[in-house]
Amino acid sequence: MGQIVLEKVSKSFGETQVIPPLDLTIEDGEFAVFVGPSGCGKSTLLRLIAGLEDTTSGTVSIDGENVTEVSPSKRGLAMVFQTYALYPHMTVRKNIAFPMRMAGLSEEEQDRRIMAAAESLNLVDYLDRKPGQLSGGQRQRVAIGRAIVRNPSAFLFDEPLSNLDAALRVGMRIEISEMHARMKTTMIYVTHDQVEAMTMADKIVVLQSGVIEQVGSPLELYSAPRNLFVAGFIGSPKMNLIDGEEAAKHGAKTIGIRPEHIDVVEDGGIWMGTIGVAERLGSDTFFHVNGTGLAETLTVRALGDVALRHGDTIHLNPRADEIHRFDAQGLRVS
Amino acid sequence: MAIVAQSSKTRRIRRATLAWIVGLLFFYPIFWLVLTSFKTDADAVKPEHLLFFTPTLENYLNMTENYDYWRFATNSIITSVFATIFALAVGIPCAYAMAFNPSRATKDVLMWMLSTKMLPAAAVLYPMTFLTKSLGLFDTHFMIIVVLMLINLPIVIWMLFTYFKEIPKEIIEAGQMDGVNTWGEIKEILIPLAWGGIASTALLCFIFCWNEAYWTVRLTTTDAATLSKLIEGNRAPEGLFFGRLSAVSAAAVGPIVVLGWFCQKQLVQGLTFGAVK
């Protein structure tokens, strides 16, 4: 079990309020991702749940039990840190055994769980090494191993992949997702990478300046962003935001359209512009279009390779049903 | 190329010469002390016997037979060891708290601790003597241990704080998440990780305790008197017996010089406050 409920939780450091009072529920077994730009308070929120920071007000409950005043060691949660935070003076085996030793598990049970974790994380050959002798990816696996052996009620991940290189990051992302599918334990994952958020989450919590901008499934956030911030933050490349006359035509202050929802046509398109940069990825081509009179540059995604070059004129047709409309406060108009 | 090699070689020789001169300059008093300790009191003051004399063990025999050297030495060991242990017992939790749970006052507290070292010892001589006597603690091991511990505590806490600061906070937090309590954090994580720093601190504290003379001389007479007191006691009113005094001094600094020799690496690390890794 691992339902986590935050009620009116706030956090201030001295005079500065980092998190204004907020409410949030993470259901048992859910994979929740806190995402937002750096300094948005996502790590602080995670640390409040972990108990590593004291709440200024409000209550944190795990499985219906108020743990606001309970020390991190007694909350039954496991955490994986960005810097791995392994114990450098202990071997991999001892690192993984540490939480079980603290919990007073028998040696046989410890060994059994260490082997099970090591096998699932490909660490069997490294059990007698010290963390200093491992690569970044292996260290992260040890940190995960140390977390899973305790059977925690929830896992907390604090940007666990940001110190890894791109290729390894994709691999670990999949491993963590598989681990969640297998264990069905509540996981809370903090990242600034919206791709990680979109690919892993059951529920995404988008934060800005300590305020929850939107909570929803990845596709809800993609198809119906509640405000301009979420619209701009979720999706890669970013949604095109257009103000002025064109927006007024749709009865909005601002309209948004994703690059993949603008079709490139031979001629007679609604919009027209000059190609600035064309990024060819093989599967897709991203055109950065200037001189449309709509926005400074308009990003357009075309499937496959399109035979248009820098300086060419491009004709575009936005899909009318994919246009998002926002009012003067930046909120979605449905 | 040849010129460059030449000049770098000259520079090396020059630097080595300078190092030797400085080294010998510092070593000379100890050399003289040891040498004098093997001379008779008469020979000790004669310049013609500076290097050439008939060596004698008279001073050392005199010291152990008439002055009970071993009792003083035992007192020095007891007071230094226990003062160091207690200083660490208080200093480790204290430095741990300040390093990993700093508050706005942490810096001020550290400065305040250090400022106690700026107080001239002579300023509190009267109250200290009065207090120890009225509490019936004058010339007791307990009193000397407490005094030695207290005067070294600021430096112990400062040093430990500097070492602990180098340990990433996440490792301690990982420990908290893994279910250890505060004592467990100190015992299982902090002490093993900062072992080198703790050893350097202990060593330095021990040396300071061993060499302390102001309070050990003034707050003891016989029962808790340390080697400092023994040296002081040989400063006879009828004039200085250089030979005897040298033997006592050599025997007092001997153990600590040997200890320092074996722990050179830790000492350098300790004195540079962890700046050299």
Instruction: Name the CATH superfamily assignment of the largest domain in chain B.
Output: MetI-like
Indicate the low-confidence ranges of chain A by residue numbers: none
Instruction: Outline the biggest β-sheet of chain A.
Output: 6 strands, mixed
Estimate what percentage of residues of chain B fall within beta strands: under 5%
CATH class of the largest domain in chain B: Mainly Alpha
Helicity range of the residues of chain A? 25-40%
- Which quaternary structure do these chains form? heterodimer
Q: Which architecture of the largest domain in chain B per CATH?
A: Orthogonal Bundle
Q: Average pLDDT of chain A, to the nearest integer?
A: 93
Q: What is the CATH topology descriptor of the largest domain in chain A? A: Rossmann fold
- List the secondary-structure elements of chain B in sequence, H or E: HHHHHHHHHHHHHH
Largest interface: A-B, 25 and 17 residues
Structural class of chain B: mainly alpha
Shape of chain A: globular
Instruction: Identify the CATH architecture of the largest domain in chain A.
Output: 3-Layer(aba) Sandwich
Our count of helices of chain A gives: 9
- Quickly count the domains of chain B: 2
Which of globular, elongated, flat, extended, rod-shaped describes the shape of chain B?
globular
